[in-house]
Amino acid sequence: MGRYHCSEHGIEYSSVCPACVRDQAEEDRQSILSSLSEQTEEVSERLDTLLYKQSNPGDYKCPECYFITLKKGAKRCPMCRSSISEEYWKQVAEKEEETRKRKAEIEEKQRQATEEQKRKAQEEKERIVRGIREAKKEWENKVDLVFALLIGFGLLILFVVAIAFTLQEVANKIMSWFS
Ligand SMILES: [Zn+2]
Ligand SMILES: [Zn+2]
After folding, report:
1. Which residue ranges does UniProt annotate as crossing the membrane (predicted)?
2. Is residue 179 very low, low, confident or very high in pLDDT (cuts 50, 70, 90)?
3. What per-residue confidence (pLDDT) applies to 1?
């Protein structure tokens, strides 16, 4: 006889839901397993690195055993005991020089590209500033023209009014002669 109801599993239970207990146990098991497998992976990675370093203790590859066992200029491989020729080190030096040159070339190209980008951005900025300045100047010229027109028009009106007054006065005078 259940007194409680589990909404997740839709069953009645008296003290704890057996399905919830089972789910929780499964969840715990999974999390323990996954943490264990993570640890195992880490340990195996560390072992791999250690083994690699043990068999490759140098900076350069031995041309005989192909392990990275050689310090620069070494006469003998500490792993396979082969003697290393001067010719081998000359080739290594040439390869390094070539790599250095190529790297410098790439860096120079990148520097030039950056410079070019900066130059274009600056040009674009100047172009915009010039555009704004020209638009402003054009606007100012228009305003000046409108002012000039207004003043001209005003003077014209004054002139017309003055003539109208004068004509009126002349007319009045002529009319007074006949009255
Ligand atoms: Zn439940
Ligand atoms: Zn070797």
Report:
1. 145-167
2. confident
3. 55
Q: How many domains does the chain have?
A: 1
Identify the CA nearest to 72 among candidates 92, 94, 95: 92
> Is the confidence at residue 21, as pLDDT, over 80?
yes
d(CA 78, CA 95): 23
Q: Which ligand gives the minimal distance to the CA of 22?
A: 1
Please tell me what DSSP assigns to residue 164: H
Ligand nearest to the CA of 56: 2
pTM over 0.70: no
Cα of 30 to ligand 1 centre, how many Å? Answer: 19
From ligand 2's centre to the CA of 74, what distance in Å?
11
Are the beta carbons of 43 and 53 closer than 8 angstroms? no
Note whether residue 67 is domain-resident. Answer: no
In a domain, 40, yes or no: yes
Q: For the CA atoms of 136, 141, 147, 152, what is the dihedral angle to 10 degrees?
A: -170
